[in-house]
Amino acid sequence: MRSARRFTLTAATATALATGFLLSTADAGVASEPGTPRTVSSGWSIPWGLSWLPDGSALLTERDSFEVYTLTQDGTKKRIGKVPDVVTTGGEGGLLSIAVSPSWKTDHYVYVMHSAPEGNRIARMTFDDGGLSEYKVVVDGIRKNKYHNGGRIKFGPDGYLYATTGEAQTPELAQDTKSLNGKILRLTPDGRPAPGNPFGNLVYSYGHRNPQGITWDAQGRLWEGELGDSKYDELNLIEPGRNYGWPKCEGNCSTDGMTNPKRQWPVKEASPSAVAYADGAIYMAALRGERLWRIPVDGTNAGTPKAYYTNDYGRLRTVESVPGRNALWLTTTNADSNGDGGPGSDRVFEIGLQ
């Protein structure tokens, strides 16, 4: 295994990591081309969540083992603990995303979203040299089901925690602004509604089917990737209080009060999970589509998508930009029931942007 290039943590990068958000240095609408993926680490089974620590290493979750690991940029992997009270759903649930606190250097908090016996929840744990400890539920009351659990959490540039939730195979929940399902949620680190939320609760936007990806561009605009039903998957530009259509709309539609996606794909070409912003483009990891999409963005407009690595590495789950370097990390999900690999068949890649 080749070692990752050494990277220096500058003061600016350290500040950005501490807030959980790193803006790309390039935002002129010019998207770099992704190069050939290099394996950082192998032997994984459904790595789902990925979040960066201030030292440039990453925390990763495994969906079905409920384990959390650190992974350095030279490929050193270390188990740090197992999240309690997690259950599988026999489908897409389990231990999903992870997010490092913007104040991790002082509070040592990490947040996880997972399936529990009574539903999906967001919890907080302490991570230090002793591993994971001090589990505390921050948000519960999110319905779970075998499929459509959403599950991505990230801290935004405003310092609040954002979470994507699926409609738990109950489509009408997506249109109910009192329900936490089929939504993007926005909350304070202790689980209260963030100031300025449009409905006075945790709900930030609604009308979502199964969103699994969120990212912010260099101007702080929120973009979301969403799995559709049988017609179209979506890339949405998220604004507070907007209705993104499901189940009344899938892809573009002319129904009053609905917000259309910026881009849509046939489901066989996408089934998107994570999205990440880097150098003027959104990168979207595709599960069923088995490819990485690059979508140039210019202001609020999304340009023509281009696919990379089609069918080369199987199902792609999580993509994140690497702090301080012009690169991405990308994970596979080939060890699940829809993949063609067994336990330990998944990998973490690094992709240079040129």
TrEMBL record:
Keyword Zinc: no
Source organism, top-level taxon: Bacteria
Signal peptide start-end: 1-28
A Pfam family per the record: GSDH
Keywords recorded for this protein, A-Z: Signal
Glucose/Sorbosone dehydrogenase domain residues: 46-336
InterPro entries listed in its UniProt record: 6-blade_b-propeller_TolB-like, Glc/Sorbosone_DH, Quinoprot_gluc/sorb_DH_b-prop
Region (Disordered): 333-354
PANTHER family the UniProt entry points to: HEDGEHOG-INTERACTING PROTEIN (PTHR19328), HIPL1 PROTEIN (PTHR19328:SF13)
Protein name: PQQ-dependent sugar dehydrogenase
